[in-house]
Amino acid sequence: MNRLYEYIQRFAVVSQQEFEQINVLLELKRYEKKATLTQRGQVENYLYMVNEGLVRKYFFKGKHEMITQIAKEGDMVCSSVSFLAQEPSEYIVETLEPTTLYAISYPNMQKLYAMGHKMERLGRLIILDWLLQKEIWDYERIRQEPRERFKHFMRENNDLVQRVPQKYLASYLNMKPETFSRYKHFLK
User: Fold this and answer.
1) Which of 31, 39, 90, 102 is most deeply packed, by most CB within 10 A?
2) Is 154 in the same domain as 69?
3) Nearest to residue 56, comparing CAs of 172, 142, 166?
4) Which of 172, 167, 169 is nearest to 140 (CA)?
5) How much is the pLDDT for 188?
6) Is pTM beyond 0.70 here?
């Protein structure tokens, strides 16, 4: 719970009593490696925060998996359009290793907002931060050359190289696995 409490404190000063009100609405979920949290065509019911483990979000373009997010400890993940609009998901959300998540259901998110202005503001700030992070990443994926993208990723997420299969990292960085391998070799 410390990681979640610290995460929330980034957006609003929340007393222990208020945190306990939030905590009542959360579920602690544990999954094995390769567990599917969200299927394509299914309405996303939860917004997750990764406590321990890794989660990827992807879709298929033809036969190829296109990974749009690799969430590690402290990150939020879900099929966001599906969750927020309560429409069927175009994405698949899956664990990459044994994972523990804090999850809030859509109905419980609405209950949280109904607790008052402070909770509405907290939810808005968390969703806004999440949206900004996604937009910055999307922009960098388009704007940066593959080598720049790789170097930036390695500076910010070097720990993931040991935890995530190389083909997934390559997909996430929008490059071929051979290109990823070649750039990785240059770093040695």
Assistant:
1) 102
2) no
3) 172
4) 172
5) 58
6) yes
